[in-house]
Amino acid sequence: MNVKEKGVRHERELAEELWERGWAVVRGPASGSGARKRFQPDIVAARDGVIVAFEVKRVSDPSKPLYINKRQVTGLLEWARRAGGRAFIAVRIPGVGWRFHDAEGLEDTGGGSLKISKPSSGLKLIELEETLLPSSRKLDYYFTRGQT
Amino acid sequence: MNVKEKGVRHERELAEELWERGWAVVRGPASGSGARKRFQPDIVAARDGVIVAFEVKRVSDPSKPLYINKRQVTGLLEWARRAGGRAFIAVRIPGVGWRFHDAEGLEDTGGGSLKISKPSSGLKLIELEETLLPSSRKLDYYFTRGQT
Known about the structure:
The structure is a homodimer. Chain A is globular and about 35 Å long. The first copy, chain A, has a single domain (about 5-145), classed as 3-Layer(aba) Sandwich (Trna Endonuclease, Chain: A, domain 1). Chain A starts with a helix and ends with a helix. Chain A has helices at about 5-20, 70-85, 125-130, 140-145, and strands spanning about 25, 45, 50-60, 65-70, 85-95, 95-100, 105-110, 115. Chain A is an alpha+beta fold. Helices cover about 30% and strands about 30% of the residues of chain A. The first copy, chain A, contains four helices and eight strands. In chain A, the strands form two sheets. In chain A, strands 1-2-3-5-6 form a five-stranded mixed β-sheet. A three-stranded antiparallel β-sheet of chain A has the order 4-8-7. At the A-B interface, helix 1, strand 1, strand 2, strand 3 and helix 2 of A face helix 1, strand 1, strand 2, strand 3 and helix 2 of B.
């Protein structure tokens, strides 16, 4: 399996997990399709009026910082601004799982990249839901807590 | 250009028009990708917290009814229900343009299909926006009215 196939497999995996947890989910088309004119996130998820745009990344060594193309993040943030939603970088870490970092306020290295110093320090999926969904959803949290 | 390429071209065209009008837009992946486990709309658009899922269709003869697979519509409605949004069938009619039909309340033919008797009777894009967006957006309507 090459790098691109691996990326697609991870995107699908996250999309499926979000769907199973009750989100409406759509994966964007492969990078490049129409991407010149307008930015398209890797995944868009929505639930009860809450919209989230994700850029999906993976790291092999969670102790090393992750650098993300600044223009990609700018596109993601513009998408979320239009939608009236939020933007997150979803980082897949082997042996750890998914960690989510708010795309807003990432560290600017000054060289065309933004930096996530500690990919593993991001929110877990269940914590992301806690952050995004209204308090009426908090009950779910306690019921599903042991599962993620 | 074959039928599939034409479909993709029309989807892109609508996605671009929505983007130009201020919507955040994402085109779903080609039919079939992950579609077995979970439904993915052809296009998802969002603006200021309003979410719309589109199934894109085209007709060559606008005087003939359009039949849509019932399971497709059920999937689209389920997607919109989860998202807390709305679902529309976007119909491309040559010489007329786009017309939008609420996926809710389509006529059931009883044979696994839902029917749009008069594709050309749907909402224009600007009328769709009028229906979906809060009244604070109505000003846009008057400014852009002549353009569509």
